Amino acid sequence: MSATSYRLHATRLIAGRELRSTVFGIGIYIVMTIAFVLASYGVNSFLYNISQNGALAMPSPLLLPLFVAVFLSSLYLGLLSSLTISRERDQGTLEVLFYGPVDSFSYVMGKFIEQMLVFGVFILFNLVFFAFVALITNFGFSLDIIWLLLISFFVAASVVAFGIFLSSITKSSRASVFLFILFMAFFIGFFWGYSTLMGIPDKELSAGMIYLRQALDYLRRVIEWVSPLEYLNRGALAVASSSVSGFFAAVGESLAYGVVLLAASIFFFNRKGVKK
To answer: Which of 80, 155, 199, 249 could form a disulfide with 232 if both were Cys (CB 3.0 to 4.6 A apart)?
Structure first.
């Protein structure tokens, strides 16, 4: 076998080993249950509004509940990804693996592929669940749902790559998980606060608040390229507005983001080595 064949074989084995342990674990099913409960609550709220106010003009009422389900699934896989390298370094498993035909490329890519296969399971369950919801509510199963599920796969790759990157630059699993939670909380909190501030009319703002809003706007332009969650937001907006160019732009940006972070993960993994 050539070196490339050995590398691909090692990648496949690593992905398969982790996939079995994740799929047969209870974690992903707990997350899916939470996601579907929240999605059901959103659908029920929409049905209640219809019963109270009559027909509501909304192109695809299932898009927002689906967005919530995809968002939670991506966060969960990102959290798992932040443990991939650091946890096995803590346990000493990396040293054992690297005695065999495993290098940094095959290891990182194996971990990445495993998480994306798990997200494929999420997509399958989401497809079945929302098809059932569309059937019993008569909302209709629009193509927008398919497009959002499709783009969510590429965006989830960005979140997973972000988690793997954090795992590659930290020495302990606690540090990588802490960093992931910290970054996600900051990204979510920043854009919630930014949206709230931007919604206040200028005449109600003091001079200091206006300068603060301008500063936050400059910061937003940076964060929207750093935060993997923003790629999901841009993709969902493109689907909701039926923007074909926006859809493919979001896919391309997510792919580029993921490739850069995976390459950086391999680089830092080589720098830090396999020992604690």
So the answer is: 155
